[in-house]
From TrEMBL:
A single MF term (Gene Ontology): glycogen phosphorylase activity
PROSITE patterns referenced in this protein's UniProt entry, alphabetically: PHOSPHORYLASE
Any Pfam family hit: Phosphorylase
N6-(pyridoxal phosphate)lysine: modified positions: 679
Cofactor(s) needed for function: pyridoxal 5'-phosphate
Protein name according to UniProt: Alpha-1,4 glucan phosphorylase
Task performed by this protein: Allosteric enzyme that catalyzes the rate-limiting step in glycogen catabolism, the phosphorolytic cleavage of glycogen to produce glucose-1-phosphate, and plays a central role in maintaining cellular and organismal glucose homeostasis.
Amino acid sequence: EKWPRGDEKAWKTSMRGLDTDIPSITKSIVGHVQTSLAQQAHNLDDLGAYQAAALSVRDNLILNWNETQMHYTRKEPKRAYYLSLEFLMGRTLDNALLNLGLKPKYDDSISQLGFRLEDLLEQERDAALGNGGLGRLAACYLDSSASQELPVWGYGLRYKYGIFQQLIAPDGSQLEAPDPWLEHDNPWELPRLDVTYEVRFYGHSERLDNMKAVWSGGQEVLAMAYDTMIPGYETKSTNNLRLWESKPKRGFDLQSFNAGDYERAVESSNSAAAITSVLYPNDHTTFGKELRLKQQYFWTAASLADIMRRFKNLGKPISEFPDYVAIQLNDTHPTLAIPELMRIFVDEEDVPWDAAWQLVTNTFFFTNHTVLPEALEKWPVPLMQNLLPRHMQIIFDITEIVVSVVEKKFPGDRERLARMSLIEEGYPQNIRMANLACIGTRKVNGVAELHSELVRLTIMKDFVDLYGVSKFSNVTNGITPRRWLDQCNPRLSNLISETLKLPKAVFLKDLYKLEGLLQFADDPAFQKKWAAVKQSNKERLAQHVQTTLGLKINTHAMFDVQIKRLHEYKRQTLNIMGVIHRYLTLKDMTPAERKKVNPKVVLFAGKAAPGYYVAKLTIRLIVNVARIINADADTKDYLQLYFLPDYSVSLAEVLIPASDISQHISTAGTEASGTSNMKFCLNGGLLVGTVDGANIEIAEEVGEQNVFFFGHLTPAVEDLRYKHMYHPVPVEQKCPPLARVLNEVSAGRFGDGGVYEPLLNTIRQHDYYLLTEDFDSYIQALKLVDEAYQDRTEWIKKSIRTTAKMGKFSSDRAIQDYAQEYWNIESTKPE
Ligand code: Z2T
């Protein structure tokens, strides 16, 4: 190969890898203090030291990233792209140090410079570009892809504001503040001023012959790329997460500008920037706002233009597109990619419609994350028609495909056709994005066995009849053991390493290796060490709560944790009603009786969507119940309750390792998978839960004797709801203990007389999520938990056996499944 420019020797002698001995690291950090930050030792604070350390680590990532991307360009492997509107990354520095294997050296070097690495890590703000499980899953999948040297890129949006910051007002209610995560420079992203695409909105589309059209007019906005490096664990392979920012095109509103109407020119440039300004904070409801649709199109159009440009650089015929490109759609949010790729092929690349459809349906894959009907995305036809006239035409044309195949297989079945159509009739008509996502993809998957079965039996039933069952399969979610064991619980990962006599890298890359712990479960010396790790993690959490909130947690109690988005289906209400029940029971006891009770600390955290009234009321109730309980001298040694504000990835990293038991108590059939359940178990916490989502597969792995199951099963739910609707029975009759709790709340025992009525009424009236049906067995399950905890040795054995059987839940396994069964991509690495 010919050297591209200048004096080859001058380049080559200057190009070197970075030295990673401690003096070189120190030199690099100090160099960044001096030049990048323009600071000095005497005015450097923790934040500055964090920034310098981050820039130094970043240098390593950039070199690995360059090499990996160069390698992909040369080798031309098939690549996969993960399109997700959410990436809940959390912090980067600790993860990067661990994946690079440089943590001990940076620790030493930073100490030499007079700082503590732990303090610097705390300076970093979370990258919180997601709502909950769906966004965190995307982050785990990026880690696993890079760690397994798979050519996978993520594509998303660079929101200026991530998920809102949650504050708790004096009366206990949730307040939202913006999350200005980019306020300090973000060292983990590289702005790509040269990677830009124009994205059109509005205008008109004129049909030509051959199913083609010309879309013109309207307005154009610029998409600019920001690249985030995703280092693999113990490998040079470093993948890319490309996030798009919206900007006005140069001369976006030149007309107004030239006419001297600067205000108007600025206003329209603001409207371009608005597209990527904020993450929508709704997790399970659709909002139907035009700006959200703009986000979705802006992102899919920029991503596909980028993917297309990369494909074209290969110089292959367009018919080979699916041999080089696989695209995973994370829920229906990126479904516009389907008509957009049709538009590119048909209108721009002159591919005949039918051939284009073949290529498109061989490129895309679709993951569904919920069967809750309110979460199924629909867009009004008039809105789509106005914003994306060409895509509306294409969606109508795809509808014709659906009509003809359904008509052929089920002649005259009008009702079936109406259910399967992309267009839902009504005023206005709506576009059903899940139907489009199903029709336009090679495969559809759910995220746990039960959920995938429900997808086949409910929302996709008609499509199973049409295509056959093989198009609809399951990939059970997973979590990355790098962040969710080694990073968040180093004491445990050290203990495991020393016990199994294996370097950490062995079990962090092959989580099934944890099974080796089974043979130590009965070893008293090991049990003691295991319990000591849990205890020190409780103290770490208590310390954190003490410094951030000024509260004193009893660390000699069982820690019972429920941390997740607030939602009726997740039933935080069941938990708080259970807590109140426990409190009332304690109050009924004599002091002597109380002394026999297992002391418990109940911890909640989670955000409610800002417009979700009942969920916000639940937070308010928890906070106010906590206020009364924690101040009650009779009970406070036996029961403490806390709502920790502003739940985040970083807070989860402190909470999860400290938990003895965690709650995953959704109404059966409603939680698609859950992933925190896996995180708790990996860290030796046990579960109390319903027979739902991945709880079921966890129990299959660890054995039912190690999980506290309760409640009705999925097949019963439909019948119970029907009964509630047509043969309602008052709570007093159906479940007296719960009725007592509701009445105490109603009567103002926890303050705020009257405000909780709307929440209580969701239980007293239809009780859609079946609290009245599950309350008794829930209380029974918690009693079994208490009894099991009394026999501490047995409990520790359960804890060890649980961790030992978590191999299946590594996101490495999930990504292998996608790579082999869906994307057809292979590992490849530089050198
Ligand atoms: C979300 O976090 C999940 C599903 C959604 O459906 C939306 C959001 Cl923001 C549209 C969660 C599921 O509730 C959870 O069970 C699952 O583990 C997670 O996605 C990842 O699949």
